[in-house]
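Reminder to self: tokens first, then the designed residues, so the page reads top to bottom the way the pipeline ran.
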């Protein structure tokens, strides 16, 4: 039986929390890095835990994040517009 590592869950929560406070008027340049970090935290947890109870919700969240933020850090930064003053909100 794999023991629960509370720190891993706390670390995941610190990365997921910014998703709960994102505004519909948020711009990609404002949210891409916290969202990329949340994706990475989910990926890391998937590698060490099977998440029997919450796999479906965690996977759904991961897939939704993938719609906005690419897996590759370079691709994610390439999506940041050069002129953030004229950038359109995501919502």
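Designed residues (91 positions):
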């Amino acid at each position: 039986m794999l023991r629960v590592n509370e720190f891993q869950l706390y670390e995941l929560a610190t990365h997921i929390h910014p998703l709960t406070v994102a505004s519909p008027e948020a711009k990609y340049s404002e949210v891409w890095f916290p969202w990329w970090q949340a994706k990475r935290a989910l990926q890391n947890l998937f590698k060490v835990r099977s998440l029997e109870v919450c796999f479906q919700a965690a996977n759904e969240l991961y897939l939704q994040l993938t719609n906005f933020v690419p897996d590759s850090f370079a691709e994610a930064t390439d999506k940041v517009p050069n002129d953030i003053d004229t950038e359109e909100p995501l919502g």
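The chain has a mean pLDDT of 88.
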